[in-house]
Amino acid sequence: MKELPSSIGQLNALQNLHLSQCSELKELPSSIGQLNALQNLDLRRCSKLKELPPSIGQLNALQNLDLRRCSKLKELPSSIGQLNALQNLDLLECFELKELPSSIGQLNILQKLHLSWCSKLKELPSSIGQLNALQNLDLRGCSELKELPSSIGQLNALQNLDLRRCSKLKELPSCIGQLNPLLKLDLQWCSNLKELPPSIGQLNALQNLDLS
Fold first, then answer.
1. Residues 178, 29: Cα–Cα separation, whole Å
2. For residue 65, what are the β-bridge partners?
3. CA-CA distance, 185 to 208, in Å (whole number)?
4. What phi and psi, each to the nearest 5 degrees, are found at residue 79?
5. Range of the domain at 185
6. How many Cβ atoms are within 10 Å of 193's Cβ, its own excluded?
7. For 22-71, how does the pLDDT look when each residue is reduced to its tens digit (9 = 90+)?
8. For residue 141, what pLDDT is reported?
9. Within 10 A of 168 (CB to CB), how many other CB atoms are there?
10. Is residue 184 part of a domain?
């Protein structure tokens, strides 16, 4: 299947749209934004999908957006910040993704952000600190990531921070100590990390610290 008909936007009651492994699908019609009841959009392994239409931001009911292994996806539209109901955003192995739009910080109830093995991602926008509901941030295998923004200390709900194999990460910002609910900090294979900031001692809830 190479495309969806534009008439798909007329499915007013549609809650779940699963397109996983539609490996010939190159784009979504702009009418996708008319799916007012859509809660789950699964685009896993749509390996030729290069972008999402700006109208994606109109999906006011969308809770889960799965883009795992969309290996050609280069960017997210800035309209993604309008997804007021989004709780889970999974971008695992989006190898061509180089940056996130600053509008990502508008996702007020986002709980899980998975960016593992986004190997061309060089930085996170400072607006990431606005994600007040974020509990899990997975940056495993982001081998081009050299630093974390200081705003990361504002993530008041963060419980798990996975930085495994962030091989160019040289230091953690001192604000890391402000992550009061943090339970797990994984720094395995961070081979350029030379020291931890003194503020690490402020993580009173931390149960697991992995430096192997």
1. 43
2. 41, 89
3. 6
4. -65, -10
5. 6-210
6. 17
7. 999 999 999 999 999 999 999 999 999 999 999 999 999 999 999 999 99
8. 97
9. 15
10. yes
149 inside domain: yes
Beta bridge partners of 167: none
Amino acid at 1: M
* CA–CA dist 163, 63 (Å, integer): 25
- Tokens representing 149 are 């923004």
pLDDT of the residue at 135: 98
1 domain-assigned: no
Query: By CB neighbour count within 10 A (0-12 exposed, 13-18 middle, 19+ buried), where does 2 fall?
Result: exposed
Question: Contact 143/122 with Cβ under 8 angstroms?
Answer: no
User: In this structure, what token pair is assigned to residue 6?
Assistant: 């534009």
Q: Is the dihedral of CA 95, 99, 103, 105 positive or negative?
A: positive
Q: Where are any strands of DSSP class E within 97-207?
A: 112-114, 136-138, 160-162, 184-186
Instruction: Give SS3 for 173.
Output: coil
Determine the residue type at 84.
N
Q: Count structural domains, the chain.
A: 1
